[in-house]
Design a protein that fits this description.
Layout lengths: L2 E3 L37 E5 L65 H16 L7 H13 L16 E6 L4 E4 L7 H17 L3 E7 L2 E8 L2 E7 L5 H18 L2 H10 L6 H4 L3 H13 L1 H4 L3 E2 L5 H10 L9 E8 L2 E6 L8 H11 L2 H4 L3 E8 L10 E7 L9 H10 L8 H13 L15 E7 L4 H17 L2 H10 L15 E8 L4 E3 L10 H19 L10 E5 L4 E6 L3 E7 L5 H17 L1 H4 L8
Parallel strand pairs: 8-15
Antiparallel strand pairs: 1-11, 2-5, 3-4, 3-7, 5-6, 6-7, 9-10, 9-13, 11-12, 12-13, 14-15, 14-18, 16-17, 17-18
Helix pairs in contact: 1-3, 4-7
C-alpha cells in the first residue's frame, strides 16, 4: 500500500492499514471467554445433506467485463436492474444446506492424541443421548410451534444482552480470530469447537447450532475455515449465521479464496494469523457495524439522505475520463453511508461487497492515518473471490476542519492491532455513540463530517488514478460541493425524525425498497435512545425478517407478521415494491398498524428522491 503525505499538520504518524505477507507477525492477544455451558444441557441442531458447489470461474478484476460469483456474467445486471445486485437473501442460507465441501479430523491445537480421543468419545456419548434434528420435518414442526407463540414476546432485561463472541479457526484446530478480551482458556475452547464439528463431519453431517438454555452457538463451515458465534440475545439463528458469513467475506477481502486454497493445500497446519496480522481492526469494526446496521441484516444498502440536485451535481463530476483504464467503481461515502456511486454500464455491485469496502474505509487504521491517501489491495468476494482489485482511498480536504491535538490523540489510542483491557470501555463508548442517531455506525464525533472518495480499479496506473482523484477533489471544492455536503451533515439534513411523518403512535420503522435494494429509517429516538432498548428493537425486526423470508427453515414465507410485546407492537409487511418493519405503541389496535404502514409507504414514495440513490451516472 502506498501513501502520499497529507498537508494537514494535525494528523498522527502514518500506520500500516493492511497486513503485509512476509512481515513478522504480531502476537494475537486472545480474549476472555465466558464459562462454556455444561455439555449435558446442550441441544444440537444439524442437517445431514450438504450442497457441493462447483468451482466458480470469474474474470480477473483487470478485465473490462466483471463477472459475479458463480460464473454468471454481471452483464445480466443491466441498468434496468439498478445499481445493486438484487440478491437480497444471498448472505443468509436456508436449512437446505451449506456451501463448500467440509472435511476435518480431530487434530486439535495443543492436545495429544490420547486426550483428543477421550474428548471425542465423551462428546459422542453425550450428544448421542440428545434429540437429533437430522430430520428437517422435526425442526420445522418445532419452529412452527414457536411461531404460533410469537405473539407473546416479553421484554428482555438489559443484562440479557451480553457481548456476542465470535471464533474463527482452521479445520486443523488453529485459532485465527477471537473477539472479546484476553484469556488463557481459548486453546481448550477452540479444541472443543473443532471436536464438535469434526464429530458431525465424520458422520457425514454438518453441525449448524447448539442451544443451551438461552444461549445459542451457531456454526458456519467455509473450509478451510470454521466460524462460530455465541449469543444470548434471542435473535433467530439466521442472524448470527449472516454475521459469520460477513466475517468470512471480510477475511476474504484480505486473503483471497484462491490464496487460502493454495496455502492450506500445501500446509494444512498453516497459521493464518501471520497473514491477518494488522487486520484485526477491520474485523472488530465489522462486528460493531453488524450489531447496529440493519442494511447488512437485510442485504441492502443505507444511503445518505440528501438533496437530489446536490447528489446529482456531485455524481456528474465523479464520472471517470476515458484516459483512466480499468476503472470499476467510484464511490463517495460519508457517515458510513453511500452518497453516490458511479459504475460501468450494465454492471451492478453486490451490497455485500459495498459493506466490506465501506467498513474497510472507515476502520480506525484508515481514518487515523496521517496519509493523504491509501492504496489498498482489496478482494471483493462477490465480484471475484480469487483476485484483488485496487482501492484508492482519500478523504476530501475541508476548509472548516478544526482538529485539536487532543482529538487526534484520542483517535490514535483507539487504533491498535491487538485487543487490550481497554476494549470494554471503548465498547461502552461506541454503544453510546451508536445509540445516538446523530452519529453513524462505528464512527465517533471527530470523524463525523469526513467525506471519503474511493476509486476501485483493476490494473489501472497508480499515478493516473491519484492525479485524477486529486483533480476531482479540487473541482468539488472549487464548486462549493464539499462545503454543501459538510453543511448538510452538520446541519442534520442527512437524518430525519419519525415525527416528520405525523403518524400517531409510530415510534420507528425500516423501509426497504426492493427495486433499489436500499433501506431508509428515521433516527432511533425515545424509547429506543439507549443501547439495550435499541438492541431489543433490532432483535424484534430481525425476528420479523426471519419469519417473513423463512430464513430458518420455515415451511413457507409470510406476507405479514405481527408481534405484540409489553413495550410495543411490531409489524412486518412485504409487498412487491417494498418491505416494511415498524414499531408502534402497544396500546394501538392492529388496524392502526396497517394504517401506519400505508402512511409510511406514501411518505417514502413522496420523499424517494432524497432517501434513495437512483439513476447514478454510468460510464
Amino acid at each position: 500500500m502506498s501513501h502520499t503525505p497529507r498537508t494537514s499538520p494535525s494528523r498522527v504518524p502514518s500506520r500500516s492499514s493492511t497486513p503485509v505477507p512476509g512481515r513478522s507477525p504480531s502476537r494475537l492477544a486472545l480474549p476472555v471467554v465466558r464459562p462454556a455451558p455444561s455439555v449435558s444441557s446442550l441441544r444440537v441442531y444439524s442437517h445431514g445433506s450438504s450442497v457441493v458447489h462447483s468451482p466458480v470461474s470469474i474474470s480477473p478484476p483487470g478485465t473490462s467485463t466483471p463477472r459475479r460469483e458463480g460464473g454468471e456474467s454481471s452483464s445480466a445486471s443491466s441498468v434496468a436492474e439498478g445499481i445493486l445486485v438484487k440478491e437480497p437473501d444471498v448472505e443468509v442460507e436456508t436449512i437446505d444446506g451449506e456451501q463448500g465441501n467440509a472435511s476435518g479430523s480431530l487434530d486439535s491445537y495443543g492436545r495429544d492424541e490420547e486426550s483428543k480421543k477421550q474428548l471425542r468419545d465423551q462428546l459422542r456419548r453425550t450428544l448421542s443421548k440428545k434429540e437429533s434434528f437430522t430430520d428437517i420435518s422435526k425442526f420445522r414442526q418445532r419452529h412452527k410451534e414457536k411461531m404460533s407463540a410469537m405473539q407473546e414476546v416479553t421484554h428482555t432485561p438489559a443484562e440479557r444482552y451480553p457481548p456476542r463472541q465470535y471464533f474463527v479457526l482452521t479445520d486443523a484446530g488453529k485459532p485465527v480470530f477471537i473477539s472479546g478480551h484476553d484469556t488463557e482458556g481459548t486453546t481448550s475452547l477452540i479444541g472443543v469447537i473443532q471436536a464438535l464439528v469434526s464429530i458431525f463431519l465424520d458422520d457425514g453431517d454438518k453441525l449448524r447450532c447448539i442451544n443451551a438454555g438461552n444461549t445459542r452457538i451457531v456454526f458456519l463451515l467455509r473450509p478451510p475455515l470454521y466460524y462460530a458465534c455465541v449469543s444470548a440475545w434471542g435473535e433467530p439463528e439466521s442472524v448470527t449465521r449472516s454475521h459469520l458469513e460477513y466475517l468470512h467475506l471480510q477475511i476474504l477481502s484480505v486473503v483471497s479464496a484462491e490464496q487460502l486454497r493454495r496455502m492450506f493445500e500445501q500446509r494444512r497446519n498453516f497459521d493464518l494469523r501471520r497473514l491477518l496480522s494488522g487486520a484485526e481492526p477491520f474485523l472488530e469494526s465489522l462486528l460493531a457495524r453488524l450489531e447496529w446496521d440493519l442494511a447488512m441484516s437485510t442485504s441492502s444498502l443505507h444511503c445518505l439522505k440528501l438533496d437530489p440536485v446536490l447528489r446529482k451535481a456531485v455524481a456528474d463530476i465523479l464520472v471517470p475520463t476515458t484516459k483512466i483504464k480499468d476503472m470499476l467503481y467510484v464511490i463517495l461515502v460519508a457517515q458510513g453511508r453511500i452518497i453516490t456511486l458511479v459504475r460501468p454500464k450494465k454492471h451492478s455491485i453486490h451490497p455485500s461487497d459495498l459493506h466490506i469496502l465501506v467498513n474497510t474505509v472507515h476502520s480506525s487504521s484508515i481514518l487515523n492515518s496521517s496519509a493523504a491517501a491509501s492504496w489498498l489491495p482489496v478482494c471483493l468476494p462477490k465480484f471475484n473471490a480469487s483476485a484483488f482489485v485496487n482501492a484508492y482511498v482519500m478523504f476530501l480536504p475541508r476548509n472548516d476542519r478544526q482538529e485539536s491535538p487532543g482529538v487526534v490523540s484520542s483517535s490514535q489510542s483507539s487504533d491498535s492491532a491487538t485487543v487490550d483491557a481497554a476494549s470494554e470501555e471503548q465498547q461502552s463508548s461506541r454503544d453510546d455513540a451508536s445509540s445516538r442517531g446523530s452519529l453513524p455506525i462505528g464512527l465517533d464525533s471527530s470523524h463525523l463530517t469526513e467525506i471519503g472518495l474511493v476509486c476501485v480499479s483493476g490494473q489501472a496506473d497508480f499515478e493516473a488514478v491519484r492525479g485524477w482523484c486529486e483533480a476531482i477533489s479540487q473541482k468539488l471544492a472549487s464548486e462549493g460541493l464539499i462545503k454543501k455536503l459538510s453543511q448538510a451533515i452538520l446541519g442534520g439534513d442527512t437524518e430525519y425524525s419519525v415525527s416528520s411523518l405525523s403518524v400517531p403512535g409510530l415510534r420507528h420503522f425500516v423501509y426497504k425498497s426492493r427495486s433499489h435494494v436500499q433501506i431508509t429509517m428515521p433516527l432511533f429516538e425515545e424509547p429506543y435512545d439507549t443501547p439495550n432498548e435499541k438492541r431489543r428493537l433490532i432483535t424484534l425486526y430481525q425476528t420479523l425478517f426471519d419469519a417473513i423470508h423463512a430464513k430458518s427453515g420455515q415451511e413457507r414465507t409470510l406476507k405479514l407478521q405481527y408481534i405484540r410485546t409489553s413495550q410495543e407492537s411490531v409489524m412486518g409487511w412485504i409487498t412487491q415494491p417494498f418491505e416494511l418493519y415498524l414499531a408502534l405503541s402497544p396500546h394501538l389496535p392492529k388496524s392502526a398498524a396497517v394504517g401506519a404502514a400505508n402512511a409510511i409507504a406514501r411518505w417514502v414514495q413522496k420523499e424517494e428522491k432524497r432517501l434513495f440513490l437512483r439513476d447514478a451516472p454510468v460510464f
